[in-house]
TrEMBL record:
Domain HTH tetR-type: 18-78
DNA-binding region, residue range(s): 41-60
Native organism taxonomy: Bacteria, Bacillati, Actinomycetota, Actinomycetes, Streptosporangiales
UniProt-listed InterPro entries: Homeodomain-like_sf (IPR009057), HTH-type_TetR-like_transc_reg (IPR050109), HTH_TetR (IPR001647), Tet_transcr_reg_TetR-rel_C_sf (IPR036271), TetR_C (IPR011075)
Organism: Streptomonospora wellingtoniae
PANTHER family: HTH-TYPE TRANSCRIPTIONAL REGULATOR RUTR (PTHR30055), TETR-FAMILY TRANSCRIPTIONAL REGULATOR (PTHR30055:SF148)
Taxonomy, superkingdom: Bacteria
Full protein name: TetR/AcrR family transcriptional regulator
Keywords, in A-Z order: DNA-binding, Transcription, Transcription regulation
Length: 206
């Protein structure tokens, strides 16, 4: 997760096909976190998941397709949006979930690997963009509700506000190595809320 928190390792009920998919995606996430995208190998994923190699090749075929499915699964498993009744409360809840995900040793390494791969692989980039579009869309209503309550000016772009919350946290993860703690999350939420209240995220022409 990020942009809302991801529950790693969660297994949903289902038949053998669902169990195989869960095992393979869990194994792919582990391999990504440990070795990065360049070392991700479908045969190794099959071994980790304890399923037949032909099953993995037949269902996914290539590493980018497998990673795209992993990102879809992560979006599906992401924790639901929190409603606190205030803009700052909602944005802080979002920021804390992002922070907890990125600070997690496995999840943080996984996101680093996928983001790095997305810079040079178009299929991975599309999958990553779809993941974040899903997560931002799920949290956008907290901004829309703030506009309805009069906390924000009309025409505020909810997607831009939500992106502004997580941007400093990803910058710390990828660029500065700064502390990814609750205080950092709270600062990111407060800054995004202040900018939104000041009208900095009002759509052009509104």
């Amino acid at each position: 997760m990020a942009l809302g928190g991801v529950e790693p390792g969660h297994t949903r009920p289902g038949g053998r096909t669902a169990r195989v998919r869960d095992a393979v995606l869990r194994a792919a996430g582990d391999a990504l976190a440990e070795h990065g995208m360049d070392a991700l190998d479908l045969g190794d994923v099959a071994r980790r998941a304890q399923v037949g190699k032909t099953t993995v090749y037949r269902r996914w075929g290539t590493v980018p397709i497998l990673v795209a499915d992993l990102l879809r699964d992560m979006a599906d498993q992401s924790l639901p949006r929190t409603e606190t009744g205030s803009l700052l409360g909602d944005l802080t809840a979002n920021a804390r979930l992002v922070q907890e995900t990125l600070a997690d040793a496995r999840q943080g390494a996984l996101f680093k690997a996928v983001i790095a791969a997305a810079t040079c692989d178009a299929a991975t980039a599309r999958a990553l963009h779809a993941f974040y579009a899903t997560r931002v869309g799920e949290w956008a209503p907290c901004v829309e509700q703030a506009v309805d309550r009069g906390e924000l000016p009309p025409g505020t772009d909810p997607h831009e506000v939500v992106r502004a919350v997580s941007a400093p946290l990803y910058y710390s993860l990828l660029c500065t190595g700064g502390a990814l703690d609750a205080a950092a999350a709270d600062r990111a939420a407060a800054a995004a809320a202040a900018a939104a209240r000041a009208g900095l995220h009002v759509r052009s022409g509104d």
